[in-house]
Amino acid sequence: MSHPQLAKPSLSDILSRLPQSIPISPQKPDAALTPIISSLQLHPTIEALLHLLHSDLPSAHFLCRHMQAPPAVEGMLLHSILHRIEGDWNNSRAWVEDVGSDQENTEDREHITNDVGEKSARCRFEAANERSATVEGEKVGEGQEQKGRGSRLLRYVYESVPLRTSSSDYVGGEPVQMALDLISSVEAFRTRNEGSEEVLKQALLHETRQVLDWCVHEFGEGSWGDVSSAWVRPEEKVRKIGEEMVSGEGGWREF
Description:
By secondary structure, this protein is mostly helical. It has one domain. It contains 12 helices and no strands. Helix 3 (44-53) runs parallel beside helix 5.
């Protein structure tokens, strides 16, 4: 007797089964969800975010390690978030600073704020597919579209993060510093029991929603099939620095 084929779950279906925000600390993942998330064949940044929501850090790390240089700034930011969940504070800060080093022109700052939410997911996916892929650290697309995406990403995600020192006072500042402040707040809560868990949860919920909105805007919700076109390898100079940090005396940075 044949059985009807089950419909492939959508991004919304998966999100309804996951926590709404990135966790403060590692949780126990549901092993049954990992292959379901992977089966969607989403852009690897969105898949990595789903794995982070699911606390499947190894699966997220596998994807992030293929996106370690601009223009894959989304993967770099997720790499920072992953290490923050792990409690690897220095690595988390280093990845945020790397994202922020991809500077924007002042006139470009409104690019994402104005665009997010204006296109359908399908149109966004088709537009993303029209862009040329990147390997060996080269740019995606043409002209200035990719310049400064890192700082624009941080601005979109963290400029309005509800990280407060009291019930009415919001901490403000440049997006890179806001992201670093969030790392410090999570570190203080987990290592010294300082701060409000509720405030942190609200900040992480905001972060999750903004990262997801950005990635869906950039890459769509459709299937990417072979995602190797999204992989980015750092330029030779950056790659050598990374190798020195692993095998030489360059420090603690993990590549």
